[in-house]
Specification:
CATH architecture: Alpha-Beta Barrel
Radius of gyration: 21 Å
Strand content: 5-15%
Shape: globular
CATH topology: TIM Barrel
Helix content: 40-55%
Bound molecules: 5-hydroxymethyl-3,4-dihydroxypiperidine
Length: 467
């Protein structure tokens, strides 16, 4: 019997019966966060960034992460144990192309080949993300996502993957959370490559979408199934009148910029105006804009928390957590981040209702595109008691957000699936090992995986729903 109370089992039953038969339930990870074995691949910007003292909270680096390169079969067995339909993973660009372009690394490709076959033999659909932030260092030296050749390099990398895997991958995401790459990595210094230059942030945002467009074109040539991308979208809540203009601008940078470009409306005019102090946008051209707006088959939403802001308090603008950093929203008038409890360990407000408003707003801005929740989950302090981890906070987080996704679906929003972030406790980027999001606890010293109560929750949910 799983370590779940009768009332939790009853609520799982209620949720399970509302999940439509063809609704995908999965779990997600990304390459740099779990793979380890950095010496068997090329270097990425996250290897460079994590090597700088002070960039990662606890000094953690790519090795050993979760040693997934060696423990992948065990990890696929965890997915089978959970009973999920699909697994969303990312490919490490420098593992398949050491320098980003040029000669393939056959052993890197062979790893993903085994992984995909291993999923299929377990009847789990592979959902492949092409770029989840680990840009080859060799390309960053050319300017990274500010280099005008980056889109073609990304297309070349896409072709390597499409040639080899388009026959077996069920869904493709070109990019994961390009807002983080552009604005936390280029505008701000919180993530790799740590540029801290607002102009670079806007240019990176645009060039990421140019890369997406070129990647989609290649995937179409290889008849890849179900092509889309995952954005981190959310709802901005202004606590008072004085924060309204800032909320609109921040919503523009995090939500509307991406959705409007994808929908063919170009850069929102207010974002264009408010960013003139940083950039003249001379890197934009009409043919790229047309390519970016070509149809995709689905859009992924990575949702964790709303962004609640208020007029500045006496201390001025305050950044209270990962993603809640004013430098990542260049051009924002002074505000303070004002998340309301309960908060996760990341300092992120827990608010499932804002998932519904985010889904509704997204479908309005980009109509007729099926939506998936490609990431959702929470970091909470996990206590190991007699070898068990009873993570009720995380379990409740999942239950309330799956409920919200189903409410949105019941109200007519075309939501087709939900992926838990994350399968494993892993390297939480600049937070290192200090924040754990896993369904399975990973012991840093022994690499032992232990199912938390939230993993039992998913196992029960999957066992009780109709498939
Ligand atoms: O761990 C990250 C992931 O890589 C991208 N989305 C948010 C997660 C939690 O911060």
């Amino acid at each position: 019997m799983p370590p779940l109370s009768k009332s939790v089992l009853d609520s799982i039953d209620e949720l399970a019966h509302r999940i439509p038969r063809n609704f995908l339930i999965g779990a997600a990870t990304s390459s740099w966060q779990i793979e380890g074995s950095s010496t068997t691949r090329g270097r990425s910007i996250w290897d460079d960034f994590s090597a700088v003292h002070g960039n990662i909270r606890d000094g953690a680096m790519a090795d050993p992460a979760c040693d997934h390169i060696n423990r992948w079969e065990e990890d696929l067995n965890l997915l089978s144990w959970l009973g999920v339909d699909s697994y969303r993973f990312s490919v490490s660009w420098p593992r398949v192309l050491t320098h980003g372009v040029g000669e393939n690394n056959d052993s890197g490709l062979a790893f993903y080949d085994r992984l995909i076959d291993g999923l299929l033999s377990r009847h789990i659909e592979p959902v492949l993300t092409i770029y989840h932030w680990d840009l080859p260092s060799a390309l960053e030296t050319k300017g990274g996502w500010n280099w005008d050749g980056i889109g073609d390099a990304f297309a070349e990398y896409t072709e390597v993957l499409a040639k080899k895997f388009s026959d077996r991958v069920s869904m493709w995401a070109t990019l994961n959370e390009p807002w983080c790459s552009a604005f936390l990595g280029y505008a701000d210094k919180f993530m790799a490559p740590g540029k801290g230059d607002p102009a670079a942030g806007f240019e990176a945002a645009y060039r990421l979408l140019v890369g997406h467009a070129k990647s989609v074109e290649v995937l179409r040539q290889y008849n890849a199934k179900d092509v889309g991308l995952a954005l981190n979208l959310t709802t901005f809540i202004a606590e008072d009148e004085g924060a309204k203009a800032a909320a609109h601008h921040m919503d523009g940078i995090m939500n509307r910029l991406w959705l409007d470009l994808l929908a063919g409306r170009g850069v929102p005019s207010d974002i264009m105006e408010n960013s003139r102090q940083f950039t003249d946008w001379s890197f934009i051209n009409d043919s790229d804009l047309a390519a970016i707006s070509r149809p995709i088959d689905w859009l992924g939403i990575n949702y964790y928390n709303p962004q609640r802001i208020a007029s500045p308090n006496d201390d001025g603008a305050v950044g209270v957590g990962n993603g809640q950093r004013i430098d990542a929203f260049p051009g924002t008038p002074p505000i303070t981040f004002a998340p309301k409890g309960p908060l996760t360990e990341m300092g992120w407000e827990v608010d499932a209702a804002s998932l519904i408003t985010t889904l509704v707003a997204t479908q309005e801005r980009l109509p007729n595109i099926p939506l998936y929740i490609t990431e959702n989950g929470g970091a909470f302090p996990d206590l190991i008691v007699n070898g068990s981890i009873d993570d009720q906070d995380r379990l409740n987080y999942y239950a309330s957000h799956i409920d919200a996704a189903l409410i949105a679906k019941e109200r007519g929003i075309d939501v087709r699936g939900y992926f838990a972030w994350s399968l494993l406790d892993n390297l939480e980027w600049a937070e290192g090992w200090t924040k754990r999001f896993g369904l399975f606890h990973v012991d840093r010293a022994t690499q032992e995986r232990t199912a938390k109560s939230s993993a039992y929750f998913f196992r029960e949910l999957n066992a009780r729903r109709s498939k």
